[in-house]
Amino acid sequence: MQGMKTRSHLPRLSAHELFKGKLSPDDPRSGRYFSMYSSVLGGIVTDARLMTIPLEDHMVHRGDGVFETMEIHRGKVYQMAAHMDRLGRSAEIAAIEFPMPENEIRDILLETAAAGEAREAICRIFISRGTGGFSVDPRECDQSHLYVMITAPEGPTPSHQLRGMRVITTEIPARAEGMAQLKCCNYMPNALMEREAHLAGVDSAIALDANRFLAEGSNKNVAIVTPTGELKTPTFRHALQGTTLRRVMGLAEGLVEEGLLSGLKQADISRAEAYGASEIMFVATTLKALPIIEFDGHPIGGGEPGPVVRRLREALEQDMRENESLLTPIPYQD
Ligand SMILES: Cc1ncc(COP(=O)(O)O)c(C=O)c1O
Question: Among the atoms of ligand 1, which is closest to the Cα of residue 175?
Fold first, then answer.
């Protein structure tokens, strides 16, 4: 077309050109991505430019894989057994076989974390359907793959922690019964929930089940404190069995003994019940227990974080520091 400039050719890059010199300190990956294991590569890499996954892995182009996110605190992995159990359950639902025995996967995870050297970090572990082509058919993949990624910590912002979150209900439906326990790599509905919340000018969203009861957040469980002081959470029919929520329910028994809570319950929660709650909170690995101070425009607990969420957060932090039965030390070299 007249007047239109022809674009110059894109550069053809050699491996040498891609990897010459060091990763630029301005690169967003710099200082945040500590180490990665890949069964495709057959080892651990610490240069973020090498932390790649083949596009032909069905986990990439179809979301056909399962994963877990764990926290590393003071050089120890918190609740590793619970996360590995859930990874096994997800893999079973997805009919993906582990690429190697589970004890080997645990060793690889710990060795990758050791190579990353960080004492405070997030560990993500992925089991993919495998490489083999670009169709949706799992038969294309001979072998599942394992990826372990160690990155910088990702807690809530200090202001969310202090002042709490403003949250809405999303019309994106919660996961169907039977699929809620599959922690798979297709988080498109979850991503759209977050987008909807941010477009509405709030911090996050909660999905409802088919009967319009509260289910869960995009990557977090929900709990309320009723006006009579009960800590109540939705059933796991449409919500992932959170490792943090399960631990929170254990730790909350102490608050029942103390009299701060009157009891613990798992049952359906309507939006009307939640609007009248004295506290609402999100619970998840990276957030721990985080107050929700507004839900669909209704102020919760007078619009201020309440005492139960604060005590549960403190109890979780103490558990992460001191409960050796839930802490797996990382075999650092030094
Ligand atoms: C959909 C969903 N629900 C709940 C959770 C909270 O689970 P956990 O406490 O194990 O992080 C997560 C996070 O993994 C999640 O992705």
Answer: 1
CA 151 to chain centre: 13
42-90 pLDDT, tens per residue? 999 999 999 999 999 999 999 999 999 999 999 999 999 999 999 999 9
Active site residue 183: yes
Nearest CA to ligand 1 atom 7: 242
Which residues form ligand 1's pocket by a CB distance below 6 Å? 69, 216, 219-221, 240, 242-245, 284-285
**Distance between alpha carbon 75 and the CA centroid of its chain, in Å?**
19
Q: What is the 3-state secondary structure of 60-72?
A: HHCCCEEEEEEEE
Atom from ligand 1 closest to the CA of residue 221 = 4
pTM of the model: 0.95
pLDDT digits (tens, 9 = 90+) for 120-143: 999 999 999 999 999 999 999 999
Could you tell me the domains of the chain?
A: 28-151 (3.30.470.10), 158-321 (3.20.10.10)
Evaluate whether 150 touches 123 at the Cβ level (below 8 Å): yes
Token pair 């297709």: residue:
186
Residue nearest to atom 2 of ligand 1 (CA): 219
